[in-house]
Amino acid sequence: MEYRDKKIVIIGAGSTGRSLARFFLARGAQVVLSDHRLAECFDDLDELDSLGIKLDLGGHTQELFAAADLIAVSPGVPLDIPVLSACQNNKIAMLGEVEIAWHELSGTMIAITGTNGKSTVTSLIGEMLKAWGENAFIGGNLGIPLIDAVGKDYDWQVVELSSFQLETIEAFRPHYAMLLNISEDHLDRYPDMASYIAAKQRIFENQQQDDVAILNHDDPLVLHSAIDIRSRKVYFSSRSVLEEGMSLIDDRIIWRWNGQETLFPVADLQIRGRHNQENVMAALIPLLVEGCPAEIAWGAATKFTGLKHRMEYLGDLHGAGWYNDSKGTNIGSVVKSLAGFDKPVILIAGGKDKQGDLSALIEPIREKVEQLILIGAAAERMAGVFDGLARIHHVDSMHAAVELAAHYSCPGATVLMSPGCSSFDMFENFAVRGEIFTREFRALSRREECVNGN
To answer: What is the tens place of the pLDDT at every residue in 141-196?
Structure first.
């Protein structure tokens, strides 16, 4: 695509927006970087200014957008804000970062979406490709913007995609497209569940018969989303024995493909829980289809210990195991996390309310949670739904939540911080929330060591 002398406005001045600005500037475009946040919210603005990037901060100047040849949209920017609605009405071209990057890339792309497990599967595939000796870009919604892969000599791109990123594609066509699962999420952004699902299923819309769709056979919403896709469907299941695809049977994962069968013992894995077994199955499929030796792919899977802030084991205190699951930002994720534990669980939850249906958590809390510690804006609504299922406590900080969890912990218990909400009411992002929880746990552990040492 040709960008020389084009007037391009990038909306969103975070890491993706800045990468886009550098990309367009290197191609001779006239670049404006626009954000509703004020200049004091950003670092290193002098560098951007010195490059010749015009800054439009503290709001969006309508005249700049109206004069643009292209609006480049960073992930997370809602398409219905007034300045973008006006651009759409005036037929000004609007593309997302993923679409822009895709046109510049070669090699094999594996794209992963779903409500939960995206980051784990993306990282797992990256480790498998590394073990196979392949040169791969690993990023997208996971961290490094896809636009940063442009101009690099990657044979593979493994890309985590959010529903927000998929809203702004046009021709984007990954060779492998995964839909891991669908449960309620981001209903503070989408008008209804159907709109959220429609954004997710766009990952398949440009695939052709020689492409591959990797699908969760156990999720009816996933199956319904894939009814009309053109690509070849390959399934994984932890509940059914598939004649072709990836199945979990008792303590073994079984891969059946082209008349051959390969077995993998689940006991070899370091990451725990049924949901992580499903993540491993999904990650194995594109590698095995591409001809990676099974022992190499499985060897990488068995060495994988998980991601920070996703069921991250922090240690024991008072005989209770503590887990940081700050990346559990929706109700479905909390359900999956609780499934890996037995009672008694002390659950720390809450944050910015996404307005999702909380009912899926009722039985898991009734069965497994003894103490429910609630923080953030969603605490009142959660307390109302879960009243009588566990003993409920309200606190106003992560420090108070950790102190209270320690007070109630006992040998054999589990302390799980799995919020089921986004972090933005109290923390910059889920990673900051997880780091603060971890820091509070470490500080408490050190105090306990000092007391016991004395």
So the answer is: 888 999 999 999 999 999 999 999 999 999 999 999 999 999 877 767 788 889 99
Q: Which of 141, 276, 324, 330 is catalytic?
A: 141
Please give the Cα distance from 391 to 395 (Å, whole number). Answer: 13
Backbone φ and ψ for 131, nearest 5 degrees, come out as: -65, -30
CATH number at 396 reads 3.90.190.20
Categorize the per-residue pLDDT at 50 as very low, low, confident or very high, splitting at 50, 70 and 90. Answer: confident
The token pair at 330 is: 């929706």
Three-state secondary structure of 68-91: CCEEEECCCCCCCCHHHHHHHHCC
Our measurement of the distance from residue 325's CA atom to the centroid of its chain's CA atoms, rounded to an integer in Å, reads 13
Residues 323 and 270 in one domain: no
Options 60, 116, 175, 186, the catalytic residue: 186
Which of 268, 285, 257, 321 minimizes the C-alpha distance to 112?
285
Determine which one of 60, 118, 309, 354 is catalytic: 118
Asked about 141 being catalytic, the answer comes back as yes
- Name the token pair of 408: 């109630």
Q: What is the pTM of this model?
A: 0.82
Strand order in the sheet with 320-324: 312-317, 320-324, 414-417, 345-349, 369-374, 391-394
What pLDDT sits at residue 451? 63
Determine the pLDDT at residue 58. 92
Rounded-to-integer distance, Cα 12 and Cα 74, Å: 5
For the chain, what is the domain count? 3
Domain final position from 75, 91, 107: 91
Range scoring the smallest mean pLDDT among 5-9, 129-133, 340-344, 410-414:
340-344
Contact 368/151 with Cβ under 8 angstroms? no
Please state, as a whole number, how many other Cβ atoms lie within 10 Å of the Cβ of residue 168: 23
Within 10 A of 195 (CB to CB), how many other CB atoms are there?
A: 14
pLDDT confidence of residue 395: 96
Residues 195 and 68 in one domain: no
Average pLDDT, the chain: 93
Closest CA to 179 of 232, 139, 128, 217: 217
Looking at residue 198, what is its pLDDT? 94
Please, which residues have CB within 8 angstroms of residue 431's CB and are 6 or more apart in sequence? Answer: 308, 309, 326
Domain of 130? 99-303
C-alpha distances out from residue 138 to 5, 188, 251, Å: 31, 29, 30
